[in-house]
Structures
1.
Amino acid sequence: DTEVTQTPKHLVMGMTNKKSLKCEQHMGHRAMYWYKQKAKKPPELMFVYSYEKLSINESVPSRFSPECPNSSLLNLHLHALQPEDSALYLCASSQGRPISTDTQYFGPGTRLTVL
Amino acid sequence: AQSVTQLGSHVSVSEGALVLLRCNYSSSVPPYLFWYVQYPNQGLQLLLKYTSAATLVKGINGFEAEFKKSETSFHLTKPSAHMSDAAEYFCAVTADRGSTLGRLYFGRGTQLTVWP
């Protein structure tokens, strides 16, 4: 099973709302990632968790707050977003500590629209 | 630092024709290279990866890529295109170096269109 699941598939929120994106994997992977992808662009790395600890934050605004409650679950909490934050948010996981030869397995993404 | 350049943001081929998607990399250390495919409204799926073993790498769905150090290239090919190959293709590079460990650097992507 090489599946990463993400919920919800679509999310529409106002700029004053608080919402959360969820990502789950049951492959025993210990590295998990959040990416943001705008239309017709490559994914941009946001956060990396390694063994449930935040190891990389790519200078993401504080209105995005990641959380890794356990090795299978990754959340992205959203608050006071801007319309320019509308994008496809992708979660990925890889086997152990992030190393360069490991394959990252991607989920289908959450399509976020901020009004 | 590592980076990749994908030549051609759009490639169109007829069904049954050769598919060639170009990727050139820049890396100051031995690179590891990946090709991912993204179908509409989906996440990314790994097609193949080069991790310094064989220079000719075979992947899923009949795709393959050849690592050419002298040309700093990792072009993706498929002998005969199928309608189902229509998608966005991303080349990515990473390398074993300090703080960039495990970080994928993506190219801008190539949209492949397959005509019947």
2.
Amino acid sequence: SQTIHQWPATLVQPVGSPLSLECTVEGTSNPNLYWYRQAAGRGLQLLFYSVGIGQISSEVPQNLSASRPQDRQFILSSKKLLLSDSGFYLCAWRSGRASTDTQYFGPGTRLTVL
Amino acid sequence: GDSVTQMEGPVTLSEEAFLTINCTYTATGYPSLFWYVQYPGEGLQLLLKATKADDKGSNKGFEATYRKETTSFHLEKGSVQVSDSAVYFCALKGGGADGLTFGKGTHLIIQP
């Protein structure tokens, strides 16, 4: 069966510090991968998605970036965090087959920027 | 663009009450529709889905019917339990961008 991991689970970082969040998927190949952010009062917002290694699409311009160095690894980064980057970051995957729409989510990372 | 609207709550009910959480959407074409549930401190779990008009998704006593004429996908359960307390998200997958479009979530509180 497929599983998705995220780490760290929680993170407290000062403004201006760098960020690296990691997501890995097991039990599947060539998944589509996604980063979402859940901010207070704003629901879930799609940040990035990837259909393959090195292929990243950005949905929202901001000071975050994403990379996919391996087939089942997806990384969210920032060079300098802002207060507004605080939130709950969720990674998700779905099968690369076009007939499947369902996305499966990881446990999330709670980021607090102080 | 695509959008999803749902009541935000909190919605507070007594155990064994009937539940309805409304969800309406705006999308071009024929989106797939989903309900996800988020328990405290956890990620999202798929609760149910429907991919075409008049389809009914069901799971764990929850049901939702894809109504294209009213662009709705309301979530219902006949008798809720304390363990159903969570945040429920309605979402759609349209024909455009690859990601899901979510509503803001409905916080459900079930009291014993």
